[in-house]
Amino acid sequence: MSLFKQGFRDSSIYMLASLFVHSLTLIVIPILTRILSVEQFAIYDLFLLSSTFLMAIFVLGMDSGLAILLAESLSNKKKLSFLFVFTLIVNIIFTVIIWLIFGLFLHLDFFILFSKEIWHLLFTYTFFSLITYNVFNFVRWIGKVKQAALIQGLSALFGVIIGLTLVFFVKTALIYYLIGLVIGSVIGALLSLFIVRDYIINFSFIPNWKKLVKELFDLSLPYMPSYIGNYLFQFTDRMIVLYLLDMKSVGIYALIARVATIPSFLVHITAAGFYPIMMKNYSSSDGAHLIRMIFKYYFIILILAFIFLIFTSNWIIILFGGNEEYINHSYLLAILSASVLFMQSFRLTGIGFNVARKTIWILYITYFALFINLLLSYLLGQVWGLDGIVFATLIASFLSTPTTTINSSINRCDTCCEARIVQGIQKDISVWVVVIHDGDDEFSVSK
Q1: What is the pLDDT of residue 2?
Q2: With pLDDT > 90 as the criterion, what percentage of the chain qualifies?
Q3: What domain range includes position 303?
Q4: Angle, to 10 degrees, between the axis of helix 77-107 and the axis of helix 116-141?
Q5: How many alpha carbons fall within 13 Å on the CB side of residue 350?
Q6: 19 domain-assigned
């Protein structure tokens, strides 16, 4: 089977499972926006973002470090078992320590953003989601795509079904939906552990395990601040909106930002099947050709998605938001989508850093873009409000993408060509952004 066909097959399985999961999330959004206030929807969004942010901390970057070692150890089941169980135990211990420390502050009534009850739900949900994610990441990288898809689908399904059941039949309140998500995460974690029970039961220390652990941490830890930085983009945007404006503005931004991730999601789940193939075959001519082809297709899809959203954003926000407070800002959807797609491109263009064991460069580039984003969001937010914060995110993503592309290219002969592709697309999008913003009062498809 050719690498392209294998990647396409794996992507198809990921796509079906991920489309199912994402469809559940999308179905929930129009329901929640119609039964909750804009401020309550902001709390829901911040709950999910906080969980994702905490996961980026608790995982310690070991999902990526583990992937590199797994790709080199697929024929050694004892080594696979050791790497998986050791990673899971380290993540769990670190999570519990942070949870206990944070619990002390909650006990002293020192808490912000959420109520004490929601903070406890958040840590419980994140803990069990962490277990599920570790299992998902492991079975995905060892080639068991169908099992990974099953884990992903069932975990999300239980949470959404139980949450909506509690909301409709017990009480129409946000906290009941969050309780449902927590219960679903517990069930998903137990099912995940059952699927990998053989690797857990057969765990044992292997020769030279200390050297292997050191290599695992050396590869993993540079990813941790990078992941945190990428999620901080989303989290700090909300915090700046809250600081400069109010919680209602956070809710408006949250809805548009969540819908804006749809194009990125569709591209990402397609790439998810190809990425393990790229990592395993980057040194071959077929692998290098596949990497170049995926790079070019990614940015072609980016510009097509941006143009499509320019002309459909108003109708999309009507579908998901329903009321005028959301619809009046629908013109920001295309801009936020472009920002997300550019920022997510490092998952593909950053493969060169993995291969060269120079993942620390991802850290430098990520925090450079984060600093630019924070600075510009604060400055432009004071001038143009919500619009300024969205523009700042786009500018930061523009600055980081060419840097990542140029420095991570495996085939240096393609670097200039790739950089020109990225910069050309950025110029086109910049022109459209100016047109959209300057003419938003008359641009009928956007407002």
Answers
A1: 52
A2: 24
A3: 222-447
A4: 170
A5: 24
A6: no
